[in-house]
Structures
1.
Amino acid sequence: MTVLHIIAGLLALLSGAVALVALKGGKLHRKSGTVFVYTMLFMSGTGAVLATMVPDRLSVIAGLLTFYLVVTALLAVQPLGATSRKAHVGALLVALATGVIGFYFGYEAQVSGTGVKDGQPTPVYFVFGSVALLAAMLDIRMLRAGGLQGVQRLTRHLWRMCFALLIACASFFLGQAQVFPEPMRILPLLAAPVLLVLLILIYWLVRVRWPLKRSAALNSSAM
């Protein structure tokens, strides 16, 4: 399973990079996005299972959060029907559980006397827990609104897919730094791909949201 997990992770990173730079909605974007979804689901699911055997509780949380983000990003581009609503509610429960577990392990790390748990510092647990709970709150708002349309729907799909890729990049380049040749184990060098994904995420969010803001500004100035 470990070998398949590694292969899926590499394919996820490659297909995710292609999907990021490809024309959105185009054939290449759809095909690379499909590969990204399936490889990410396999990679994050097996990663969470393998991490329970170490144990590595942070990797369990990261795997669950990544799996949840990819699933909900995929659901975001589908109409909110009865079946989809049940899937959203199930995903919401996973996000809430992941967030609570993240904060619980963060608390355990904080009071441990060493400030770490399974070799991971306290703040990292709180970061993952916060992201999970924030995503859960957005899920609740979306369900109460009866679904999302237009820009909001696209934004939900975009940030969740990109954040899942961000977690995968951080897990590989920073979390597995020991697999790289020693001359490459330079923090700024290994952090560069993670920062690049973050910058691309911000770029696409601004590009998607900008027409809405520009339209609102023009309407305000015309009044």
2.
Amino acid sequence: MEFIRLDEPGVAKARNAGFEAASGEWIALLDDDAVARPGWVAAAINCVARCDAQTAILAGRVIPYWPDDAGSLEMPPSRLGPRARLLLSVVDEHGFRDTTDHPIGVGANMLFRRCVLAEQGGFDIAAGRVGSNLASGEEAQMMTDLIGAGYRCWYSDAFVVDHKVHAGRLTRAWLTERARKEGEVELRSLKTPGQKTTRAIKMLIATPMLAVLQMRDRPEHEYYLRLNHNLGLLRKLFAPAG
């Protein structure tokens, strides 16, 4: 086992250093608060063996490990909708299937074909999390780019990690800011000024309706988080330079 130390912080930078130093056909992403279950390696290898050459992404199951007092927190797990759970890196679906048309997966448990990452120039360091900044989306952007290039994405529930969810994340404030940072990451993933303008117009049109709908919705559910996603993108787009 080899440990690589970087002098500059950044999740995407660390992932790039790892895949550049690796020699295998596939690389795996795990977070520092994710623990692979027994048999993870064998299950991942078995799933990889079932993938064809056009499959470049294989996402695994991520089971949340909630705080002991989660039921008494501001946003208990029982109240979380699908979008909130995804923002908390929960991917708890069953089966082994092609998800290219509707990709799922988070960096707490994903495999990428190494040569394809090299073709793309690695993960975008501008999209990765640095320190306490909640903007995190380099793996999602890579998924989008690879699918756009004609590669396939699969999901399997056979290789599983337990992902620790800290109590500080089960709050309205954390989910709000995480949704807004997700919007910022989406803006950065748009390649041209025209794409950014088109997306901003669509969000400006949708935002008033979402603002009305979220008034009847709990803050951990769909409309509230979609609204704040839009607000995050627009906030970043119209923020003063510098």
3.
Amino acid sequence: MGTYFDGGTNWSAGWGRFVNGKDLGHLRFGDATGDKKADLFVYELPNGKVSVRTNMGTYFNGGTTMITLP
């Protein structure tokens, strides 16, 4: 905030089963859209779908499937 840190924001609430990558898949964050906001990349197991959920400021959108890996 300039001179202090705010209380933080939990961006991945409800995604706990993806965190360790052994249950439902993997989560990664990166700027897919170039807007300097962290977007959510989701790799789903066992179907291999990789989707990007765009950071809309206060929520992530429903996602767009980018590719399905074998």
4.
Amino acid sequence: MTLATGRPKDTTPRHAKAAVAHALRNASYEILPFKSTEEKVLAHVPQDVALTVTTTEAKGLGPTIALTTALSGRGYQVAPHLAARLVRDQSHLTDIVHELRDSGVDQVFCVGGDAAEPVGAFPDALTLLRGIRETGHHFTSVGIGGYPEGHGLISDELIERALEAKAPYATHVITQLCFDAATTVRWARTAHARGVRLPVRVGIPGAVGRQKLIRVSAGLGLGQSARFLKKQQNMLWRFFLPGGYSPDKLIEKLTPAFAQDTNSLAGFHVFTFNDLDSTEAWRQAWLARLS
């Protein structure tokens, strides 16, 4: 059915739109620990937007922890990505937890990391989560990763079992980027049916242009960039379309799922690639549209 103007009638349930508006209003942003990042956050990101700071093998955990504590001191809610394969041992982990506590940081996001070999006792996110629990940690928010399109090195069954094993240590799940809404929703339903009822923040791209993506990739370092490119081939060709990639259609296709109780979709996690000014302007435009 169409309106007199020929435009298709919007049949999206009102409560689904409200849920998406809430998800965008409370979206979290993922940022990269570059020298200019703190200045860009202060200039363009409201303090009510939660942040996560990535970790790269090339730079190690140091820049991630430093930016996390700096932004926390500025009033932001920030979670560092703690890459298990970059943590040496329980003593090193305890030092990290204490440093974050002393800086007022009460959130973390735990990942295995992309290092080819672990530097010490933690080969994956599950062992790191167990180590964090042993510290008697103070964290009120502990995120873990979800993989709607699977993992290149681990079978789908094993990665889903790992999610089930990690869930008791966590407060929420953040998915990797997936450009197919149906795949994300199908994965969320499967996780929900398997007993993982943690709220899921869906990873979506920010308003990122091609030139920005090229600069970010170069800034990661040659080895890290090569792995990034290999892992994100599906994403990259979309970004390199004329004008770059807009996440609008992805959000539109995800909207109905936010009204369903067969999954745990609860929010958005925006991969900004540090293009913070355009991403925040895009988010505000969506909120105005949904108001």
